[in-house]
Design a protein that fits this description.
CATH class of one domain: Alpha Beta
Oligomer: single chain
Mean pLDDT: 83
CATH architecture of one domain: 3-Layer(aba) Sandwich
Pfam family, one: Castor_Poll_mid
Subcellular location: Endomembrane system
Helix content: 25-40%
Number of helices: 20
Shape: elongated
Main location: membrane
Keywords: Ion transport, Membrane, Transmembrane, Transmembrane helix, Transport
CATH topology of one domain: Rossmann fold
Membrane topology: Multi-pass membrane protein
Length: about 650
């Protein structure tokens, strides 16, 4: 009995394994079962006394097969034996031929559709924009690409493409991802423009799934909420996977990679990992600098949000061959609808007025602030009498008093933020960092990142920013500025914003009775949540949107990275404010052109004006259309300039 049971189990197991191979195996089992039933029933009626004779067994088997596959033959049979057998065959046919066959085909179709929706099939595209990985910024990056029609058209023209196609490689494609993109784009959503594929960029076969070697550009954002490891480790591993293709592809023919690097010390390592053309953006360092600069200049977030978040004014670079050989200061007035920032050359930006004798060379690209790319065309004759910088910047513009800054929270950007404060050697800055993270662990992270603080005085305080008792003990009103940073150890952007919002409400309650309130700078992880920080003394930076904008802009025009590195990194040219009352302009009306000429003598590029008539809603005007009309200036208003350190 044990042997029979084992044989039965063996046959059952082999049949099970065969059925589970796929729909073709299931169809074969159904066909064999139908054949055996037709064979048995045919031989039965051939040998039984049914009152109907068959020429041979084959005719009887065919009779049984017809009854098994088509119930319409049931009424043609006569005699009780034939009718019973025919009825049983018809019922078996409904179960096997109709039920099992339809169920098998339906399951096969469902499995096929699920496989297609899951994005496991490889694509074959040329000149597509490839985004490796899904995070809280991916939908914003897609939105920036879709809305940047002019930049995209010029980008495709350079690469020989005809239409924008975005391919996203996510670890697991779900309907929720597609819906998030659909919600973000709204009416601009076009399902033929976006393709989702499942996989990890750490594996070469998954990179081939998205045809990465034929992409026009590859965007590689970091994973900020990746617990237990540095985001740069995954980025560099992905770069190495992309670099070691089996194809004999020359380095110059590999696609352009635009990647984020969190740790500045790993920039050179990342360059070694990918031999092809690449731009590595230290977005955490840039965001940290924006946060630090906002503690020095209230209202600066309005400028950054305008330039980096798809506002009315944007940064452009453009070739102007007709200006080659002329001094840069001479061509500054050639552009009626744009503000010239400088010249992008050899991976850096040479600011206007940095060198009065600097001339425009053959391969140079001029950098502008403008509303549109077409506004960057020269429309006037150059001014050969331009003198450029003739005076030093006005004394007293740098605030030399002691500034106290409170940083609430901790994330991987804080070391860069502290390094930025330490870089202000002409200022006295005291920074207190208040977080649940242990002091020893913070200091260890600073040492590992090479942050050696020499000028700024930094004090680490352990505590919970959501505790009103602990926040009250801090004496928050004694600080000049408070910076709230989003915690990246919570696992998601929404959780980080939820904790920071609670801390913000506690901070507001603590400051409610204070006579003098410090300025507050908030790093939000979502545009939707940024609107919740609505007090007059609060400035908001939505870091995912700013990071997404920087990545997409550089992807469409890599020279923009040189400009951003100069404008938004430590040292070099900085965007600053000049108080009109200190310049003797209080109560006067001057044209933008006259103000521009006056600031050029001090080596500064006038970008616009910030009017503070309503402190809750400061009015920023960059690159006004009419540069000859007078601008009324009152006490509290400021000029926005690009100054050279």
């Amino acid at each position: 009995m044990k042997l029979l049971a084992r044989i039965r189990n063996l046959v059952q197991f082999q049949l099970e394994q065969f059925i589970l191979r796929g729909p073709f195996s299931r169809l074969m089992v159904i066909a064999v079962a139908m054949g055996l039933i037709a064979l048995g029933a045919g031989l039965l009626v051939y040998n039984a006394p049914t009152g109907q004779s068959y020429d041979d067994p084959g005719s009887a088997i065919w009779w049984a097969f017809l009854r098994l596959t088509d119930s319409g033959y049931l009424g043609d049979d006569e005699g009780s034996v034939l009718r019973v057998v025919s009825s049983l065959l018809t019922v078996a046919g409904v179960v096997l031929f109709v039920g099992a066959l339809i169920a098998t085909m339906t399951q096969w179709l469902n499995d096929t559709i699920e496989t297609l929706e899951a994005g496991y099939t490889p694509i074959a595209k040329n000149n597509h924009v490839l985004i490796l990985g899904w995070n809280n910024r991916t939908a914003s990056m897609v939105e920036d690409l879709v809305q940047s029609e002019g930049r995209v058209a010029r980008f495709l023209s350079r690469h020989g493409g005809r239409s924008l196609h975005i391919v996203i490689l996510a670890e697991r494609v779900t309907p929720a991802l597609a819906q998030e993109i659909r919600d973000k784009l709204g009416r601009s959503f076009n399902m033929r423009q976006v393709t989702l594929r499942s996989g990890t960029p750490l594996r070469l076969d998954h990179l081939r799934r998205v045809d990465y070697l034929h992409a026009a550009v590859i965007l590689l954002p970091t994973r900020e909420f990746e617990a237990g490891s540095s985001p740069d480790e995954l980025t560099i591993k992905t770069l190495m996977s992309a670099a070691h293709a089996d194809d004999d592809t020359e380095a110059a023919d590999m696609p352009l990679v635009v990647a984020e690097i969190f740790d500045a010390d790993r920039l050179e390592t990342a360059r070694r990992a990918y031999p092809g053309p690449a731009e590595f953006i230290g977005t955490p360092q840039i965001i940290s600098r924006l946060l630090a600069q906002n503690t020095r200049h209230r209202g600066l977030s309005h400028v950054y949000n305008e330039l980096l978040s798809g506002g009315g004014q944007q940064i452009f670079v453009r070739e102007c061959p007709e200006l080659v050989g002329k001094r840069l200061i001479e061509v500054a007035t050639c552009f009626a609808d744009a503000v010239l920032l400088g010249v992008a050359r050899d991976g850096t930006l040479l600011p206007l007025y940095a060198d009065n004798d600097l001339t425009v060379a053959e391969q140079d690209r001029l950098a502008f602030i403008a509303r549109d790319f077409e506004d960057c065309k020269p429309t006037r004759e150059s001014d050969s009498s331009a003198t450029g910088r003739t005076h030093e910047s006005l004394a007293g513009e740098t605030d030399t008093r002691r500034r106290r800054v409170l940083v609430l929270g901790w994330n991987q950007k804080v070391p860069s933020l502290l390094a930025e404060f330490d870089a202000y050697t002409r200022e006295r800055v005291e920074v207190d960092v208040f977080s649940l993270l242990g002091t020893e662990e913070r200091e260890t992270m600073l040492r590992r990142k090479g942050v050696m603080l020499e000028h700024a005085r930094v004090r680490h305080i352990e505590g919970d920013l959501t505790s009103q008792y602990e926040m009250t003990r801090l004496d928050v009103s004694g600080y000049d500025s408070v910076v709230l940073v989003a915690s990246d150890w919570l696992g998601s952007a929404d959780a980080a914003d939820a904790r920071m919002l609670l801390g913000y409400l506690v901070l507001s309650q603590v400051l409610e009775s204070a006579e003098v309130k410090p300025s507050v700078v908030v790093e939000s992880m979502s545009t939707d949540n940024a609107n919740l920080f609505d007090q007059a003394n609060v400035e908001r930076l939505v870091s995912p949107d700013l990071q997404a904008s920087m990545l997409t802009q550089v992807a469409l025009r890599r020279e923009l990275h040189w400009v951003m590195e100069e404008l938004f990194s430590a040292g070099g040219a900085e965007i600053e404010f000049r108080h009109v009352d200190r310049l003797g302009l209080d109560g006067k009306a001057e044209s933008f052109e006259a103000l521009r000429h006056a600031r050029s003598a001090h080596g500064e590029v006038l970008l616009g004006t910030l009017h503070r008539r309503d402190e809750a809603m400061p009015r920023l005007i960059l690159n006004p259309k009419d540069k000859q009309s007078p601008i009324e200036l009152i006490a509290g208003d400021e000029l926005v300039v690009l100054a050279i350190a």
